[in-house]
Input
Amino acid sequence: VQLVESGGGLVQPGGSLRLSCAASGFTFSSAWMYWVRQAPGKGLEWVSRINTGGTTTYYADSVKGRFTISRDNAKNTLYLQMNSLKPEDTGLYYCADTQTGSFGQGTQVTVSS
Output
């Protein structure tokens, strides 16, 4: 199983980023997928999840209305569009799958002026 996140970076408050997670080694189209994050010095926080077909999504209250999770099963890729970013969104963002319980290595998002 391999989950490889990308797309993180440094962005100013109010800016946008799009994270990607390339999946392999399991049946991506059969797995609910998650994004979780870890702020500096804090524990893991669930951000969003999406069902196998991409038709049902859930968000943490802290990101609702600003983040959008999506997936492309043909490309085995999960996405997280992040808009109106705030400094409190800073952290290491991981994708995870429910089929194997695996996490990627994470991609760093830093929101700062």
